[in-house]
Amino acid sequence: MRSPHPLQRALQVPLPLQPHGSACQREPRAAAMVTQCLLLLACVLVLAAPGLSVPAQTLNTFEKTFSNTSLKKNSWPKDCSEISAGSPSGVYVIQPSGLHPIVVYCEMNVTGGGWTVIQRNRRNTDITWAESWSTYKYGFGNVRSDYWLGTEYIHQIAKQKVYQVRFVIHDASDNVRFAEYNLFSLDNESQGYRLRLGSYAGTAGDAMDSDNPSNTHNNMKFSTQDRDQDTSRKNCASHSGGGWWFSSCYSVRLNFKGGMTWGSLCKGDCKSSLILIKPALYR
Ligand SMILES: *[C@@H]1O[C@H](CO)[C@@H](O)[C@H](O)[C@H]1NC(C)=O
Ligand SMILES: *[C@@H]1O[C@H](CO)[C@@H](O)[C@H](O)[C@H]1NC(C)=O
Ligand SMILES: *[C@@H]1O[C@H](CO)[C@@H](O)[C@H](O)[C@H]1NC(C)=O
Q: What pLDDT tens digit does each residue of the chain (283 aa) get?
């Protein structure tokens, strides 16, 4: 019996036992081969997508993964903090526990590196941000420019360990400000992806956790125009154009086309935003 293809081994695709090749055995084998081909195709597409500059590290990981005969079950990093120190910022494949592999941008050059980028936006963005619940759930945009990673994926990543979050804001005069919360998690979808933040440190101001219940974001559920879970009588996501943890309605609006808002730092004229997460104890 020929030994399994390394890719098949890597991706844990079961190879049916095959000695006689009767019709009822050929079926699952064909199915496994189709699965194998699709996975191979997916990997090739991920690595060869036009315009994506895949850092050498990704390719190294890829080669190591598929040439190693004693593979562990999970071959991809669980988040960007598991990518080896010194790797460049760029597009990587990660696989959070219990989830399929996903493509993310890893920021390896900000305060120690290892940050998984969950949101990036610029004032002159191409994307509208006025998307539905399910589009927010699984993410949209371009991982190399402006994007939302996906509310479900953010939840899945952040439930693996204790996470922290860092918001990086370019204000109207192009000063770089940041806000860090030492805890970050999202409740699951049936709990409305409610946001849980720890305590603030930074230079941008504690705008996510305002004392005013009508414009705070900490402990709020996520709302989109087609799923209004805010604390307002109106639909904040419809009025404001994008999905967010609205109360009634906001002091921070980053998922928006045409100038973002961060508290009193920049009201509708922030130039860019970046939201980064990594395990709280990671160094
Ligand atoms: C293959 O995997 C094993 C166990 O995970 C590891 O110890 C070994 O260094 C790996 N070999 C290569 C060539 O990456
Ligand atoms: C990494 O950050 C340092 C200091 O902030 C900066 O000088 C350098 O250009 C950055 N490197 C890359 C590749 O962005
Ligand atoms: C969502 O979270 C709640 C509270 O932690 C839990 O009771 C519920 O089982 C979870 N639902 C799913 C679908 O995981």
A: 344 444 333 433 333 333 333 333 444 455 555 555 455 555 444 444 444 444 545 544 555 555 544 455 558 999 999 999 889 999 999 999 999 999 999 999 988 899 999 999 999 999 999 999 999 999 999 999 999 999 999 999 999 999 999 999 999 999 999 999 999 999 999 999 999 999 999 999 999 998 899 999 999 999 999 999 999 999 999 998 899 999 999 999 999 999 999 999 999 999 999 999 999 974 4
Ligand 1 near 70 CB (within 6 A): yes
270 preceded by cis ω (within 30°)? Answer: no
Atom in ligand 1 nearest the alpha carbon of residue 64 = 14
188 in contact with ligand 3, CB cutoff 6 A? yes
* Residue 191 Cβ contacting ligand 3 at under 6 Å: yes
Q: Nearest C-alpha to atom 12 of ligand 1 is from which residue? A: 68
Report the number of secondary-structure helices (H) and strands (E) in the chain: 6, 13
Closest ligand 1 atom, CA of 69?
1
Could you tell me the two tokens for 254? 């980053």
Q: What's the gap between Cα 262 and its chain centre?
A: 21
189 lines ligand 3 (CB under 6 A): no
Taking the centre of ligand 3 as the mean of its atom positions, its distance from the CA of residue 189, in whole angstroms, is: 8
Burial class, 237, CB count within 10 angstroms (exposed 0-12 / middle 13-18 / buried 19+): buried
- pTM across the whole model: 0.74
User: What atom in ligand 3 is closest to the CA of residue 188?
Assistant: 1
